[in-house]
Amino acid sequence: MQIEIKMDEKYTEPKIIIMTDKMTDQVNNIIKKLSDEQPQVIAGFKEDCVEIIEPSSIYRVFAQSGKVIAETNHGNYTLRLRLYELEERLEKLSFVRISNSDIINLKRVKSFDLSFTGTICITLSNGTVTYVSRRTVAKVKKMLGI
Fold it and tell me: pTM, whole model, 2 decimals?
C-alpha cells in the first residue's frame, strides 16, 4: 500500500481518495476505520459533580443494585447509560462484555485464572476480581486465542 499526502492551501478540510484496481478486505477495513464516528463522551457522576471519563482509565463497567458503575483510576462513577449503550461506545478491541452485568478493559487485566470449572476468574491490575459467565466463556477464550 502506498500513502501519499499533498498539502494545498485551497483545501479547507482533509480529502481522502483511495485508488485501487479492486475492492479488497484491506480497502474495506480502511474505509470502515475512516468512516467510524468519533468516540462519544462518557459522563460519570461522583457525589454532586459530573466528570468526563477517559475510556483508557476504566478498569470495568458493571451493573449493581440497578445502577451502572464505572470503576476507574480515580474511583467509582455512576453512569446514566445502559451497559449495551456503553458496549457500543467503548472500543471493541479493548473492552469485552464478560457477563450480563460486567464489561472489562482487556488492557487493565492482570491475569486470567482458568482453573475454575466452566468459568474464568479475571484479576484486574487494580486488584479487583471478577468472573466470566458460563455463557460468554467461549467468546472470551476465542478473543484471547485460547
Answer: 0.70
